[in-house]
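Example record used in the benchmark description.
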Amino acid sequence: MRLLIIEDDRDAADYLVKAFREVGHIADQATDGEEGQALALDGQYDVLIVDRMLPKRDGLSIINTLRSKLVETPVLILSALGQVDDRVKGLRAGGDDYLAKPYAFSELLARVEALARRPGKRGEETVYRVADLELNRLSHEVSRAGQELQLQPREFRLLEYLMRHAGQVVTRTMLLENVWDYHFDPQTNVIDVHISRLRSKIDKGFAQPLLHTVRGAGYMIRDGAR
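Model output (structure tokens):
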């Protein structure tokens, strides 16, 4: 699941990003309303978590703009304004759920996952398939030829990124920036270690390898039968 957190409190935003990534989700953040709206309009997220009180553009204004442009990404409003009238305003503005601060992360996670499961929302595919390999972004289930595969959270994120770009060369720098959030040293061996572990789980014991090393360029998930 890919999330966007629009929150001007950097400590709070950093905590949420870290917490969501620890359970295997991809989380981006924006610290003001203008940046958050620009990212949200791309429609690449499964759920948006939006604070109401933001610099440059407030949360309800962002939601109104998204809905006016037919962006239907589910929005959870996370705000210190927790009175009944505040919640009603947030929901009427186009929010799908409202959680007042302070909150328990376990409840926030459950609400976000429930929003992501709602049918009919726009956004990215929720299931990726390459040959007989299948990854479900919402349930975090991965299988090949009907056999369930057990992946660690980082392995899941790595496979999700590769499958989202199936048939394309994915460079080491792309993986560092999008899976590890590193912006330095593309020669680190952390990628090689995880690619090796992932390959042993998705290819070992199957006749057709799907995860390929493109010498001098990067990696690629593709149907080798093609």
